Each structure stands twice: as structure tokens, then as C-alpha cells.
């Protein structure tokens, strides 16, 4: 029996041979462009490259300059605030909307389309739209004041202390619909017998969601977290469209820092160092996810 299994193993390599051959260009592209580009960026982050890349190594000098720069520190603080709140509110609002949709409400398809539509827009369009909405001269503040509340003040994009929250509002408006759809797909995959058993046992709906449904949707939550987190790390165009990093540097984010140093300040070494730190952040997100999804699953099996 063992001999037959061993004899059959080589033939597995030839299964779906055409599809494997067709995937070779994609694999080579990923290896050469993505992996090669990543290694190239990390190597040149230890140089003092300016307008053009050059192998003049200066050790960790670029990283020391990076973490000594107030602009970079502000961008990291903004990313932390934006990221934590974006994760929390996206998951909570998205799950609540999905739970409401799962009640088989009337015009469900219409509401689902309305909530998902903002995700079809580019971040540039979303940023410009919310720049107009939050403009104190003709946006929310102006509308409320025209109704009689003349002391009402709401101009987050022009207040350095809260400008990142104005960016967060626009991001939630665009991304929550996608989270809702992912959560709704997970809820629709729950066996109806579980709901029937909960009703028979007299378990309140909120307890059923909290202790039964949500634990069963663990893979959906993990996947959603990775999608949200990867978008958080590379947030750029939304900030550029809304604030251009202002007022001052109060809404700076790491991706904008990288772009400005590489293409405007012509300091490739500093830009490479900043992008490498972003790569480390992505790795911190991806590695635990890969372990939970693959390594942890094999261990449990």
C-alpha cells in the first residue's frame, strides 16, 4: 500500500499541468518584480541615495534621521489613531449593518447597493466630496448655522488637533459598505438550525450573536481585519485629496512621507527607509494572519 502511494506521488506533479505552466509567468513576475523590488528597496535604505540610487552605505543613518524627524513621528501617531479607530468602527458598524440586512428586510438589495456604492468610488473622489461636506463655508457647519444654530462649529479639516478624525469620517463612509458585505456573507453561511435552537432555548438575540455567531465567523473577521489593516497602512490619496497633509503637518501619514521624500525632496535613501518601515508594519499584520489561518489550523487538526 505504501509502495503504491509512493508510486502515485510523481503523477500528482503532472495534474493540471497546463494551468501550472500558465502560472509560471505570474510566479516569475511576482518573484522578480515584487520580491526583487522589495529587497532592492531594503538594501538602498541603508545608503545615502539622493536623486539617483547609489550603493554608498551609511548603515542605519537614514533610520536614525527618520525617527528623529517630527514629520515622521506625527505621521506614525496619525496612522495609529486612524488605524485603531478605523478598525473598531469599521467592524462594529459593518457588522451591525450586516445583522440588520440579515433580518430579510424589504428592499434589501437597494439598501445593500446604497451602502456598498461609496466603495466603488476612488479615494480621490471620496476625499474631495468630504472636503466639500466638511467645509465650514458651505458644508455641514454652514447648513446647521443657516437653520438657526449660529454658534455651531464643525470644521475638523481646518483644526489641527482633530483633522485626522475628519479623514477618518470619509474613510468609514467609503469602506464600511465592503465590511458589511463581507459580514453579511458570513452571516448567510450560518446554519438556520442554530438560530432555531437558540430561539427554542430562549437565548436572547444579542447573546446568540455574541457567544455563538461571532465565534463561528472567526475566519471572516480575520480576513476582514487583514483587508482593513492593509488599506490603513497605505492610506495616501484620501489625505492628499482632503488636506494635502495640513494644516501644517497635522494630517501627515507614512505613505505621503515616502512619496514626498522620494519624488519631491529627491532623497531616495530617506524614502526607502520610510517605505521599509511600512513594509515591516505590513509584515507584522500578515505574519500573524498567516499563522492563524494556516499554521494554527494545522496544529488544531
From TrEMBL:
Topology of the protein relative to the lipid bilayer: Multi-pass membrane protein
Main location: membrane
Listed transmembrane segments: 21-46, 79-101, 113-133, 162-187, 208-233, 272-292
A Pfam entry, by short name: BPD_transp_1
Residues in ABC transmembrane type-1 domain copies: 76-291
Record InterPro entries: ABC_transporter_permease (IPR051393), MetI-like (IPR000515), MetI-like_sf (IPR035906)
Lineage top rank: taxon: Bacteria
PROSITE patterns xref list: ABC_TM1
Localization terms from the record: Cell membrane
SUPFAM superfamilies the record matches: MetI-like
Keyword presence, Transmembrane: yes
Keywords (A to Z) from UniProt: Cell membrane, Membrane, Transmembrane, Transmembrane helix, Transport
Entry similarity comment: Belongs to the binding-protein-dependent transport system permease family.
Protein name stated in the entry: Glucose/mannose transport system permease protein
Organism: Rhizobium viscosum (Arthrobacter viscosus)
Amino acid at each position: 500500500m505504501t509502495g503504491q502511494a509512493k508510486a502515485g506521488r510523481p503523477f500528482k506533479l503532472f495534474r493540471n499541468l497546463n494551468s501550472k505552466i500558465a502560472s509560471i509567468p505570474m510566479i516569475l513576475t511576482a518573484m522578480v518584480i515584487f520580491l526583487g523590488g522589495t529587497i532592492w528597496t531594503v538594501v538602498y535604505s541603508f545608503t545615502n541615495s539622493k536623486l539617483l540610487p547609489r550603493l554608498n552605505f551609511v548603515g542605519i543613518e537614514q533610520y536614525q534621521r527618520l525617527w528623529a524627524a517630527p514629520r515622521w513621528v506625527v505621521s506614525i501617531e496619525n496612522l495609529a489613531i486612524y488605524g485603531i479607530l478605523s478598525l473598531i468602527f469599521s467592524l462594529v458598524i459593518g457588522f451591525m449593518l450586516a445583522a440588520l440586512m440579515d433580518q430579510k428586510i424589504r428592499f434589501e438589495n437597494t439598501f445593500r447597493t446604497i451602502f456598498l456604492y461609496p466603495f466603488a468610488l476612488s479615494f480621490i473622489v471620496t476625499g474631495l466630496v468630504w472636503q466639500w461636506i466638511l467645509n465650514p463655508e458651505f458644508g455641514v457647519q454652514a447648513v446647521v448655522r443657516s437653520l438657526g444654530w449660529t454658534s455651531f462649529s464643525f470644521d475638523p479639516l481646518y483644526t489641527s488637533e482633530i483633522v485626522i478624525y475628519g479623514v477618518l469620517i470619509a474613510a468609514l463612509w467609503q469602506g464600511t459598505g465592503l465590511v458589511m458585505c463581507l459580514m453579511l456573507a458570513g452571516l448567510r453561511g450560518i446554519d438556520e438550525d442554530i438560530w432555531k435552537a437558540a430561539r427554542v432555548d430562549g437565548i436572547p438575540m444579542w447573546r446568540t450573536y455574541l457567544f455563538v455567531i461571532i465565534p463561528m465567523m472567526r475566519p471572516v473577521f480575520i480576513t476582514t481585519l487583514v483587508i482593513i489593516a492593509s488599506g490603513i497602512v497605505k492610506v495616501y490619496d484620501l489625505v492628499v485629496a482632503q488636506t494635502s497633509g495640513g494644516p501644517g503637518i497635522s494630517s501627515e501619514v507614512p505613505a505621503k512621507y515616502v512619496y514626498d521624500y522620494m519624488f519631491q525632496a529627491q532623497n531616495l535613501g530617506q524614502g526607502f527607509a520610510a517605505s521599509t518601515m511600512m513594509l515591516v508594519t505590513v509584515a507584522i499584520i500578515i505574519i500573524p494572519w498567516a499563522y492563524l489561518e494556516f499554521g494554527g489550523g494545522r496544529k488544531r487538526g
